[in-house]
Structure formats: structure tokens, C-alpha cells
Please model this.
Amino acid sequence: MLTSRPRRSLAAVTLTTALVAAGAPAASATAEPKIKISGGLTQPVFSYTDAIREHVRVQSQVDSDGDGKKDLIRVDIIRPKESASGLKVPVVMQETPYYDEPGVGYEVEHKTYDAIGNVTKFPMWYDNYFVPRGYAFVSVDMIGTRLSEGCPTSYGAPDVLGGKAVVDWLNGRAAAYDDQGAAVKASWTTGRTGMIGHSYEGALGAAVAGTGVQGLATIVNIAGYTSGYENSRINGVLTWFKDAAAWQAERVDKDPAEKCAAVRQKLREDSDDATGNYNAYWHERNYRNGPISKARNIRASVFAVMGMQDRNVVGSQFSEWWAKLPSTVQRKVWVTQYGHLEPFWARREVWVDTLHQWFDHELMGVANDIMRQPRVDVQLGPGRWITQADWPAPTQRVTLRPRQDGSLGRTPSTGSGSYLDIAQTEVAVAADPATANSHRLAFLTPPLKSATRLSGTPSVSLKVTLDKPAANLGVLLVDYGTDTRIDYLENSLTAAQGLTFVGGESCVGQSTAADDGCYLKAGDNTETSGFNVVTRGILDAQNHKSLSRQAPLTPGKSYQITWKMLPQDYEFKAGHRLGLVLAGTNDDFNKDVAGNGSEEDVEPGTGAKVTVDLAGTSISLPLVTGTSIK
Model:
């Protein structure tokens, strides 16, 4: 149950992390400890205050810093005191590189320790809520970060295998040691482990699951990437700043700079910012079908959450991985219109209840109805959620074609149009579609006679001619029509990623003086606007045949270029118009930090003139209800 208490100051809070909660301590378990289940849910019968707090160092099988020794992974543990006298408990595990920098969750929390090195405050709310219900919470410092040995590798094999070693230890297959070097066994656990996390943390869960490790029973992947390539570039276009891999590794590593300097230099060289091509470096970081982690090897059940307006971890990170999961994998997903955030902010009460049911079923074996509920929750707008059996919803493909008069419809047209490839924001490109603009082409359908929903991944096919060997191609699908929508673009101290602080706090679970587990409340951040960019497609034309190599185009020669846009689940309301906007470099995915601290474009645009043959150009949309577009 959620409770409230007076709101804390927002001064030290940024909306770029997550939350926790607290309540009154429950009674301790009896002499014969027993997990209590009522109404299909575990009950808080164990004392959080009296819980055992300890730490170990798990022996990994990697030497990421090249010092000749296998890296030891720091693992902090909190578990019911009854687990020392016969009670076997499952594990909720969070592995993260962020305990030092920048901190964990939207309130950027850090671990605090007592005099002997045990954690007195765990970031997030998982410990406060689940330990009283008979779970252990295991907090893992990712390899090379906080108190773990080694060097972080920006999603590379060592990052993954360090987490796998912890799951192996929990299941008796790896060694661990205390501070004196004595061996420690996880004799208190059933071995059934659930990994949970947001962003990098979610990616680690997906990656460890893709090793096929036994004992990892479920993962909760919240906006976690599944392809390192798509986290830094899309179809050959750099979408994150240059040197991002080395920067990220250095950011989370607070050891002396020289310790991992050679590792970071290799990240810098191997990631190949110069071309944006896919190579062996990126294949190692491919958790869909890479050499370390493969979706087809996943045994764990999957609960995923994806914000379809996420500019950091784009929607294809979820959709491509989801489609590759074995059919035998039990799964559930929330698909939202938010950006890069956790659902604890958006639907706190529903999220806590749903996650509780999920972990009880998957880790405790509780016979509740979570698997009989609809598999998918979809957010169609502010406060508007629907459920369905799977994702994407059943659809029919509808192909729309641009016309010389600026309309968009079913029948093809003749003629052509052109624009110059420059870097522009999506808002600038999509605004005033009826106004002539030398840097874009815009085409609109007639007003829709009925609401039309898109669910899945659109694709676009352009017949283009360039006057230079290279150009970045950008495509936007736009909803034109005044409406109140989630504002996923604002980014401030009080609102970001589609949510805003609403005042007050709510608390989940139990608390101590050191860890109250209470977090600020948030709600939908909305804006009434005349249009909304629904989804987009980005491509370096030189990579239209292969992501692994560039092939400059011959100026004056016509090319048919077809590729997938980013996925979405979105409803166009009756009376609105669908817009197809063709342009060059997408400036929303395009910022680098210069040496003087200012921002500059990592992809400034080529200046190429792109001529589009309308007869050979189309967009294919997966529509749930069909369309009345002529």
C-alpha cells in the first residue's frame, strides 16, 4: 500500500532517475519462519530493520583491466534475518554502473555504508518493499565501478560476464569471499533470481539473460538497450556524441585515470566514430544475436517497459529484441508515450502492484493471475491506457504515397521535389507544413474520418538522386491536429521525459532511519499543440546496402532506398491528418560536446541536394483499424 507524507525540496532533485518507499515496520516472523501469502500476494511479515546486511566479492571469469587476476565483483546483500535459520529466499538483483556517478534513480541516490562496510541505504525501493515479503535484495557494482575490480567496457563482454558470475554464485557455481578472504556460499537462497533495472541496468539484465545462465528466472528490462550500435548510431548516422564509449566508461569509473586508460583508448579506437559503421566492436555489444548474448538463448521470463519517445534508448531496442525472444518465454510489456524514464513515476500504484505479482509468480511460484492478465499495457495518451493480448496489435499494412500537390494518399503520383541536407530539429522540420521550405518536403492526408491507430514498425522507401556522394536521409511521421499530448521534449528540474513533479511524496514498503524509501510524486507533463512527431527514420545513404561498410553514391544516379523507421503505438484521432515529412540530418539525435564545453553537431549535414522521385516513394504503416485515406 502506498502512503503519503509532506513533500521534500526539489532543489537537489533532477528528473533523470528513480524511486523507493516506506511504511510502518511489520511484525517479525515466528520461530518457524514462513513466507505468508494472502490474496495471491506475499505479505510483509519480515522485519526490514532487523534484516541481515552483508557484502561479498564474487569471483568473475574475466580480467578486464589486464592485471593478471580475475576481477572480483562487489555484491551488497540485504535479506530477512530468518534466512540465517533455515528460510530459503529468492533474489531481486539490481546491477548498475551508476552507484558512484551520477547516482541511481531519478533522485540520484548513492549507497551509504556502516563502519564495517555494509550498506545502510540502498538506492531505489526494491529492498524496502520486497525484503519484508521474504526476498533478498542483491545490489551489484558493475565491473570496474564503485567497489568492484576491473574496468568498465561500455556494455562489452566483461560488463555482462561480471553479472553472470553473480547469478552463478547465487546458484552455487562460482566462488565468493568476505573481506578476510574466506569463502562464502549463498546457502540462504533458492537460487531463483530476478534482475531489474532501468537503462544501462536493464541492458545488463537482457545481456545476462542472453547468456542462457541457469537460475536467472526473470528479468525486468526498463528502457534497456539490446544493441550497443543503436545506442550511439542509427543506420550509419551518429546519434550520440563522438568518443561516447570511452567517455561513458570513464564517467562511471572513479579509480585513478591511468588504471583503465588503455582500455578506454581501445574503446575509442574500436567503436569507429569516423564512419558510423557496424563492426566487431558493436557485434560484441549486440544482445540480440551477438557472440556473448543472444535473445534465442534466453530462459528467463521477460517483463519489458519501453517509452516510444525515448531519444536515448530508441524503440527498436525493444521491438527487435522482443521479436527474437523464444516463443516459450513468458513475457509482459508496457508500451508508453514517455521518453527515457521508469514507470514507478508514471503509474506508481499500478506498477508496484504489477511488479509484486510478477516477482511473486516468477520467483516465489505464487499461484496468482498475473499470467492470465492481458500481456500488454499500451499508453495512448495522457492518463489513457488500454490492454491487449500481445505487441504489436494485429494490423494491416497500408501504403501511402506523396503527391505533387502536397497530399498523401493511396494512389501514386508523378513528379519530384528536392531539399538540402542540413541539420534541423524535428519541431522546425514539422512546423507549418503548407509553407514552402527548401530544407524539407511535407505531404498530408485529408482529415481522418475516424480514429486510426498505428501499432508496430513503419517502413519507408525513397527513390532519390543526390548531387554529392553522401547525404543523411530523415523521415518524420507527424500527427497534425490540435490536441493535449504527453510533452516528451521538455527537460528541466521539474519536468522531463513526459512527466512533471506534482507535489508530495509516496512511500513503499518499510523504512529505517537511514533509508526511508519515500519518493517524490510525478504525473503526466502535457502540452496542447497543433502537431506531434509520432516517429522517425534516419539513414546515412552510404549505408543503404550495408551497415558494415559505406558505399558513396554516384551523383546524378537514382537509388531506391528502403529501411525501417522506429516503432510506435499511437492513435491518430478523427479529424487529424497524417503527415510525411522528408528532410536531412535529424538534429534531435545530433549533439556533441566541444572542447570548450559548448555543443556542436556531431552530424552537421552534408549540404547535398536530395531530389525525390515521388512515383518511387512511399511509407508503409501497420494500422490496427485500417484507414479511410483515399
